[in-house]
């Protein structure tokens, strides 16, 4: 009994444990507002709904996540937990959720999107708050409580309220730095910056940062440009132009005085600069003083007016283009005719060669007098020159030489002929003109001592063409013509044909005529006849004709094959004909011999066959032979009945058959002394011959010759008869 009680006590706790059962119904994440202003707080509340089998306390493990990354964990017996983010920044925007674990069971809430509006104010700092003109201002804009990426916008406001902007993107840092150059005229500069961000949750822009002031120190003052010359400057007066500036402290400044784009004078490390000169009309114009230090430069300009002392001289020639040995006169004059020292100068060289100290000059010109002439006038040290006058002296052209570029006086029809025409002497420019016969082809002007090259394409066939060229320049009487040149035009070989007689077939041992014809081409033409696959020509001859005939004798079977013809001339283009197939056939006597041989063979075969057939027919019809023999016996019996008693012999030939009822003895058995002198008699016997191919038996007439041999006996006349029949012995 005690044992039973003990077992009940031991099972009681397990029974109680089986009663503590839970299930998580729902987990929910809440926030007061899904949109939060930057700098405010985000309060996340995770609430769990659990069903239990009894009333007992359990521990809840709460986990908060942002964009599926762990954010915060806590444990509580309450059914909810809170997580606060303060201050909220743009980087805190995202997707939040929470999960709850209790008694080995867990469940998560749905995602909750929270967006933080705006960015915190960035902070702007300057590396230096006092700079000098020409230096740069380095600025740093920072978003310490935000996370990249950012786009920073920097702004510079100068004294004239001109706004200058710079943009800088930063992907990994929450700050950016830029440099602004300090320009001429900058004094107090204002800077500020703005930060922007663009992400999956949207675009935001911060407020403007704090304003940073930068003071600019002027290293030197604006330059001053003055002239020490009289108020009215006349040519010949001395002019002094002075540029000055004031330095804030000793700087290595540079001062330049320039007119238009030409620098007249410069200095470095000084605060003043002077330019001095004797005034001329060319000194009229705008002068500029420029002071530079690094990137800073300041300029000042002034205009200077110089009155003319005397006008520019004018040089007048009698002619500008002259022939050799022609007279040239030059006159120099000045408007207003002031007293001046005048001289006439020829260039080159650069400084010129003095020809005469006078206002006029006359010379009989040669080719080397070609050049540029000026008139130079001087008053009170002021020197002026006239505009240059170009004088060209022309030497006549020499007789031109016409030549062919490839040194050949032959050309192929359709090609381009290149001719060169050149005069070895003569003043350029020289005009070269090419003529074909009396027709002008082209004119070329050459501006140096070289040749003119002409191109003439040959499109029509003339066996001989005549060319010449003319050369001329601006010399009054210069026009020279070259010797005439004859060019031979060669037409290339075209339209070749090839044949033979007889065509295609030649008797063995006979001859064949090959004929090669070209449709066109300049003579002479070289003909060559080849057999296919042979390198060496069978025939090679140059003809002053457009055709050639070649006879090949003793044509044999080895000569059978394909033949072709090639033709070429001086045009250096070879054309090939079509292939001609030639066969070898038997000669006439060979054909006759073969025919006779065949006929003889046929005749012999026919004779043998006929003999064999006839012999066979005899063996098949012995009764007919015997009938023939009986008829002969009856004829003989008739003669015996008239009182003559004879023995008769038969020679039926090779088909003879002995009859038992009517025996006939051979001639050898009856030979005797009287047989030698027997008299021969001939008797015609009509017999019937059976046709071996047709039925009934065909009747015909044959002649049977009987030999009757007579003997001189006392008792009576013994006659022996020999009968020879037709070949069938009937």
UniProtKB/TrEMBL annotation:
Domain Ig-like intervals: 13-115, 223-305, 313-392, 400-488, 492-581
PROSITE patterns per UniProt: IG_LIKE (PS50835)
PANTHER family per the UniProt record, alphabetical: ALLERGIN-1, IMMUNOGLOBULIN FC RECEPTOR
GO cellular component: external side of plasma membrane
Biased composition, class Basic and acidic residues, residue ranges: 666-678, 707-730
Species of the source: Chelydra serpentina (Snapping turtle)
Superkingdom as given in the UniProt entry: Eukaryota
Protein name according to UniProt: Platelet and endothelial cell adhesion molecule 1
Keywords: Disulfide bond, Membrane, Signal, Transmembrane, Transmembrane helix
Molecular function terms from GO: transmembrane signaling receptor activity
Transmembrane segments: 593-613
One GO process term, biological-process aspect: immune response
Disulfide bond in keyword set: yes
Disordered as annotated region, ranges: 620-730
Signal peptide range: 1-17
Record field: compositional bias (Polar residues): 626-647
Matches recorded under Pfam families: Ig_2
